[in-house]
Write a structure and sequence with these properties.
single chain, about 100 residues, mainly alpha, 4 helices
Length: about 100
């Protein structure tokens, strides 16, 4: 039976930091760049975001992410970080 050591936990955290940083960086860059191309309808849909096309919903989310940049980056980073940590721990359990 393998034991999960402090070194394993440190490696897992280190493995999660780079993808987390990249995800936060992409969230900031993409929302800043793509928001400039959103139409008025995509920025503020009169019938709600659900009424927009797939592309319209995507652009609406880019605008929304730019409006709440810190919180959207935090959420994106948290999801990626936890995903990597869970995946790493799943690998540890299998071996």
């Amino acid at each position: 039976m393998n034991t999960y050591t402090t070194t394993d936990m440190t490696n897992t955290m280190n493995n999660a930091m780079i993808p987390t940083g990249i995800a936060i960086f992409l969230n900031i860059i993409l929302s800043k760049l793509l928001s400039n191309f959103a139409s008025k309808k995509e920025i503020k849909p009169s019938k709600g975001a659900a009424s927009l096309s797939f592309k319209g919903q995507f652009m609406h989310m880019m605008v929304h992410h730019e409006q709440v940049l810190f919180m959207s980056s935090f959420i994106v980073g948290l999801v990626v970080f936890l995903s990597v940590v869970i995946a790493e721990n799943t690998k540890m359990i299998e071996y």
